[in-house]
Structures are given as C-alpha cells and as structure tokens.
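Project standup — Tuesday

K.O.: blocked on the structure for the chain from last sprint. Re-posting the sequence here as requested.
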Amino acid sequence: MGGRKRAGAGRMGPMMRVTKTIAVCVALLGLVTATTAARGVEAVKVEREPVKVEVKYFDPKHLPDPPPPIEHGEAAVTVYSLGIETYVRYGYTQPKRGAGPVKINFKIADVTVKLKCTITEWLPENPPAALRAHEDGHRAIAEEFYKRGEAVARRLAAKELGRTVVGNGQDLEGAGNAAIEQVTTRVNGGYTKGIIDPCKVAQEKFDTITVHGSNGKDAKEAVKEVLGK
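H.V.: unblocked you, prediction finished:
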C-alpha cells in the first residue's frame, strides 16, 4: 500500500520536493502449536525493532544501476516500510479420530507481534538544505507513527488473548492454520487501519501544506502541524 505525489522541478532555484511513500503490512501465520502457553511466557508480547534508516546519494546526470526509485522530474524521494508479523499459540481439545474435514475450537493462549520500520532517503549529491529538510520531515513522520504502533499492536493482540476461534480444515493442521489466519487478519488489519493508513494520510498532508517543500514553510514546523504537536 502506498502512493506517490508528483510535480515538475526546475533545473535551477527552487525545486519541487517529491516524495514516494510505501507502507507494507506483512501477514505472517508464524508459530503454530497445539499446546497452551508455557509457564512464564508473556501472553501478549510486542517486539519493536530499531528503525533502520539509510540515506543514499545519486548524481542526477549519471544515475547508478539500478537507479533510485524516482520518476521523471522528481528531485528526491523517501521510501518507508512499516511491517508487522503476528505469531499465535493456542490450546484445543483433541478431536475424535476419523477421516474427513474437522471443526475445532481453538483458544488463543498467547500472541506475539513483531514490528519493523525501514526508511531510505534518496537525495541528489550536495542537496540544498531545504530539500534535505523536507525529506527528513517525511522520515520523522514515519518514525513517529512507528513509535505509536507499539501501543496499537499491543491493544490489538490483547483483544485476541483468550478468544475462542473456530477452525475448519481437512485435518488438525489445516483447522489450526485457518484459526490462526483469522487472528492475524484481525491484528494486521487493525494495525493497517490504526497506523499504516494514518501515516500515509499524514505524509500526503505534509506534502500538501509544504507544496512538496517549495513554499518555504519550515519542514519541522510542518511536521508538528501534521502530527498535532
């Protein structure tokens, strides 16, 4: 999920600041087990990896191979990714032996959510200060929503704890996978709605109020305005 805002750019003087944003929500079934949570295991766990930020420079007249992810007329681009992986453990009552489809009630014993965020700023060599500040603004917005994501993910995971989920499948494994998919769909979907989509809206608003960095508005002040600080 993502979007691109485009505008023309002059060769000299003020340039339009164009930013590309990409948000990724990873739906991963993760760990499947037929036992309840072991003693001492945290029932709801959120692991948030440190933000990975990289700044890459390029010569607009001699683009590297492969080239930066920019389109004709773009001065710079910032790409970010917000990822989520959800792992579920459950308990269940052993179904009666027999051939054919099974329907099993699974009780969610614990949920672990892993969050990731990567940001790459692509800038021309020796970029103007205003251009760099604008792209740093996009990075700051992504970082802020990623920071907010931990509380959102924990709340979503907690809602699943102790829930009984019905799984249907050709066998126990199939039924378990079906049950876990329901949980991961709710958690990852909730994270998309609560963090990824609002981040995209904020990025677009930032470009709107700064006219992609071309109207002289201070980038840091624009970030505060977008984030409501």
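K.O.: great, moving the ticket to review. The beta strands are 2-4, 20-22, 44-48, 52-58, 77-92, 102-124, 164-169. The first strand starts at residue 2 and ends at 4.
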